[in-house]
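Hallway conversation turned thread

IA: we were arguing at lunch whether anyone had actually written out NACHT domain-containing protein end to end. Turns out nobody had. So, for the record, here is the sequence (518 residues) and right after it the structure tokens. Reply here if something looks off.
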Amino acid sequence: LYITEGQSEEVNTQHEVRQLERTSKKSLQDTPIRCQDIFKAFSEQQKKIRVVLTNGVAGVGKTFSVQKFSLDWAEGLENQDLSLVLLLSFRELNLVIDEQLSLLTLLHVFHPTFQKIRAEDLTVCKLLLIFDGLDESRLSLDFSNEQVISDVTQVSSVKVLLVNLIQGNLLPSALIWITSRPAAANQVPPSCVDRMTEVRGFTDSQKEEYIRRRFRDEDLSKRIISHIKASRSLHIMCQIPVFCWISATVLEDMLTPDQRGELPTTLTDLYSHFLMVQTKRKKQKYGRHQRAEELTEADKEGLLKLGQLAFEHLEKGNIMFYPEDLERCGLDASEVSVFSGVCTEIFRRESVIFQKSVYCFVHLSIQEFLAALYLFHCFTKKNKEVIESSLKLSQNHDPLQSVDFFLRSVMVKSLRSKNGHLDLFVRFVHGLSLESNQRILRGLLKQTVNHPETIQKVIKNLKEMNSDGISPDRSINIFHCLMEMRSKQSLRSKKKSKKKLSKIHCSALAYLLQMSEV
């Protein structure tokens, strides 16, 4: 994995996919740092490195870096000056959000094998505490108005303990490593952080190495690499190891000797195929007499319930779910466990302490795709309650009246997001309006018949929404929505003109230049 010191700019105003696009052009200019060296001061630095904050987009390898560091230490390969390395994930800390604990008790609860550790041991040993996944936290960290705690046996709330650890009031000799997605990283004040690092994922050569290692068939690996390289957006997204795996999974299934039809070139196309590939594999393993290519009513119902869960929590900004969250969407936890065991590529169960399960989608983009799928399903089924409560339109506007008005309403909703967290979601919604993608999903969505004039209305709406009040990043996302609808030609001028370029044309040109190989 490629890790650099420092942090990319403008991380809080862009969707993570856009951040990848920007950083992909800068990687050659950045100084890499090994995850094993993040607490080592460079020769010109005098200040001790006590608190490190590592950020990176979803699925890029932050948790893997933590595990690699811990394994190398445990095997005696690196950082042998540390006496103890303890990992505490925020998804587990969420389970004790209402508890009153001392730091010593907290460590005993999450690491029962260290019950013999005493308070005085913590103060004299060189300890590293790793807090993984700040973006998954449901704790509200307040660095301006929390009580001061300096005793490891003093009882308080978990959030107060964390703030005092980071500030150095509690166990000032301990090293602290926090990982987070970019949007949540600003919860920790810069004044409390001694070093910022960023996990960038796979380099270009590592993408190819991953595919060659996965497929022994040299011809197949070459064809997959060639197709990924041909699509600049897919190639950039493959910086994320999980996305590289998704792309390889789909292309492996499609690149058969009797291959028919086009290979996916848009994200909606790719994720639609991915959903069907995983469902087909599940049927081949457990379906017995069921045809692998067909979706049963139970399949559809299960996927749409997962879509509802994905949609409702995407709006809230949650990526981790608990049994009560499943129940609110009509999902039985035991049924989901069976489903996730079969289809771990879509949804997985994380076993944690207290006999309570935590659930998550394998990658944020899968949650965004299923959320878009659910909302478009609600549109085709004329589910007025869900559509109106989600889009929050006035009574004079009916988003169910037409596809173009519905898509316009979804775009308006996404533009209200300050950090662009709905950008990929809205791209998927536009992509799902195409009959070609609806056909891939084999009855999961009721097919909509979109006449050419309807598509032109959608394109016209997107262009009109690209007004002076739209930020450059939102302009680029409007361009992406056009690309998901396979409307490249709509960005081309029919003839040369001396008129000033529209904002969407300028954005498109700037984006294409940025994404070019030169």
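OS: looked through it. Residues 364-491+498-515 form one domain.
IA: good, adding that to the notes. The mean pLDDT is 83.
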